[in-house]
Amino acid sequence: MTTTAEHGTVTGTKDAQYDLLWFTKTCLKNALRLETYVSDAERDGDRELGDLFRRAQTESRKGAEQGKQLLRSRL
Is pTM, for the whole model, over 0.70? Predict the structure, then answer.
């Protein structure tokens, strides 16, 4: 396993903290994007696809909530 340098000196944020921020933001963005996808599927009458996107949205929301909880405890 190779070791890489901490990039926090550039960003001012430790890599692990940055990664957690990125993960939380991405989950939130996915939840928003999936709302559009659900609407598109419903508009086209594709219940199966809408259900898939709703399940994915639920998982994105879960990830965002978990990320926010960790951020609260670590920052």
Answer: yes
